[in-house]
Fold this protein.
Amino acid sequence: MSGWADRLRSDPTALRGAPAEAMREVLEEVAEAFGRRPWPLLAEIPSDRPVQVIGDSHGDWPAVSAALGFARRGPTPDRFVGLGDYIHRATRAEPDPVDLPSGSVWNAAYLLAWAAHDPDRVILLRGNHEATRQLPVPGPTLLRELRRIYPPAEALELWPRFMDLFERLPLAGRTANGVFLVHGGIPPPGRRDPAAWTATDLPLLEGLLWSDPEVDYEDRAIGFSYGPREAEAFLRSIGCRVMLKGHAPGHSGRALWNGSVLTLHTSDLFRRLGDGGILLAEIPDRPRIESARDIALRAWDGSAWRPRAITFLADRAADGSARAAPAAGPAGPGRAAARRAVPRRPVA
């Protein structure tokens, strides 16, 4: 080994201009590390130190490297969790800017190298964009970005290596003090016992990676909506009170349902949505987390992670007016789940 993984952990763009063999070496080291210590589908995360959590980054490696640096700022590093969607789009603005070409490649390789190097403190969860071989996502792809960098044959050889590693990541996480970490949302009815989860259960993946709170629901022809009653029942069943999620950016930085659900996005691409900003959440090392009010939110201003107040949607509407908590809907699957049992190819 020539040390490419070490160089990459120091600089997310260390592989820029390097041959495909350098990337192959990094991915082989990650595969070896994941083989020595396979991830469970539900990662159990101790609460002996703070946990820094990022949402969707979509190739924004400057924000991600700043967040990981913040988590490792002290003599004893905090734990660091990614909620998925490290790849695709690869932009900080539309269209693709010249300063971040192929950002997904650098972002994914950087995070995978760190997860392999420090699995006790760097935990990457899967997003829907990391599950595209099982539940396809249309539009920009990691393969297209690889082809920007490497000759076609080498890009085609590297792409399945990335996907193999993504498919070994956990589907969700749970902290010892009661926070459920996931990309999209809750599993469908009948699949709410983590002990029974399987990696090939497509309705399970659809729920965890594609579903949305009812206030963010869009008919993507995949995923389903869930309301406060369903979310609370699931969280209670697994010993949690709060869910941190990504996926739908419309309420980024806002807590739903009396602080039981908080959405994060850590990408410049979505900084204007929700309450705005490139966001990071900190779960403190206290014995129990009862609400998003116990969680600190920070926004990246380009030089530091500044404290940011969380908007509690039950207390204030988007226009600043008073708003009552959403009424609980009937228990059971959301509209999309009721229409079908097996997910279809997404159209948006």
User: Anything to note?
Assistant: Residues 165 and 307 are 34 Å apart (CA to CA). Residues 94-98, 315-348 have pLDDT under 50 and may be disordered.
